[in-house]
Amino acid sequence: MTVIHENPSPRTYRDLNRESRVRELASLQDELHRPEPITHLRLTDWASASTDRRALLKGAVWGGIHWPKGMGKPLAPSITAGFTVTHEFKRLDFVDVGGGDYRDRSTYVLQAAPSVWDATKDPSEYRVGFFFFAGGGGVNPNRLTVKLAPVAWEKVGQIVPGYRQLSPLRYSDFGNLGKWLVIPDFEVTHVPYPRSRYIQSMGVEPHPGGRLAAAL
Fold first, then answer.
1. What is the pLDDT of residues 22-68, one digit of tens each?
2. pTM for the full model?
3. Domain spans of the chain, in order of start
4. Measured CA angle at 59 (ends 87, 139), to 5 deg
């Protein structure tokens, strides 16, 4: 009789009992409260202490958004309101249509909202942290989208006219095989308007909107 030994499924946070979850989450909070941003090396060092910690972090994704305080902050009770962070997972659906061909009907499905928090610790910049669990399987079944929310920002100092923009504009879709992932921070940058947009000579024809441009 042949006995087939199946590899047990890797442990995740769902396999931890309540006592283990509370203990390891409290330890993780202490790690997050350190002044330095979280890194893959720091998480690896923390998780190396026990199998419970490695199970807790399985599939975890960490990231952040930062910008200099000289740019001001969102006019909201928390700076987290200045951004929208969404996570989608690709539901794979391939249909055999015969003749060796198939139709790809895969779609991205919105997942639970990532956790976001005010992670400001540096006296010279603001920072928002975010966290979620990625879905496993496939090469790139996870999609992360970070955008500026339609929230006004305070005006600080004399800033050249322009607009705010996130860099990078988009993070590449990614797969997950159970490892934890630390995404490089997004950065809010100030992009000045082209000078030709707001500087014109006196005596020009009225602007199509009905306003004359003033010389600077």
1. 898 888 888 877 877 788 898 899 988 889 988 888 889 999 999 99
2. 0.77
3. 7-58
4. 70
